[in-house]
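Budget justification note: compute hours in this period were largely spent on complex prediction jobs such as the one shown. Inputs:
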Amino acid sequence: SQKIEQNSEALNIQEGKTATLTCNYTNYSPAYLQWYRQDPGRGPVFLLLIRENEKEKRKERLKVTFDTTLKQSLFHITASQPADSATYLCALPGDTGFQKLVFGTGTRLLVSP
Amino acid sequence: NAGVTQTPKFQVLKTGQSMTLQCAQDMNHEYMSWYRQDPGMGLRLIHYSVGAGITDQGEVPNGYNVSRSTTEDFPLRLLSAAPSQTSVYFCASSYRTGGGYGYTFGSGTRLTVV
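Corresponding output:
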């Protein structure tokens, strides 16, 4: 069955550096992949969507890549700021139905000044 | 434009009690869903709806009921609360199913069953 893996360990980086988060998936070929940000005590907030025919997508300081051969998406935040500290979730349409968006467990990013 | 509104924000129930978590959206979104989020488990889909009058089960539907009589509202009913249902519940909506539209989430309901 479908499996989504995100690094459960927190990623600690210094302000100004580029943060790179990884989302790996198995047993599936999704038509698209989404990234969300979640702050403590809040609901996830949609950031970006990348489709299977797109290699890369950018939005301000965010960049997402989608490698359907490696079954992997990378999420980059350039010139990171302490305000970028949050948990970042990737999500894929379910292999049992595209109506069922399936989420990874998320990676916590901590940006120190 | 309020987005997705969930009530209540916090609730404590006794085992066996029933209750309804409310969810309303004002964006005329076709798709609505309920997730629960537990530590180490991530978000898991409980039920979803692709339009008024249409609902279906997600990954963890047992112990929960839903209905969708209007486009705006999608309440989640706990039939007989159990401690295993202690969790944070999120309602989400999306413009349309398929095609990959981002979800808008509510702020969540933190439920404790004692």
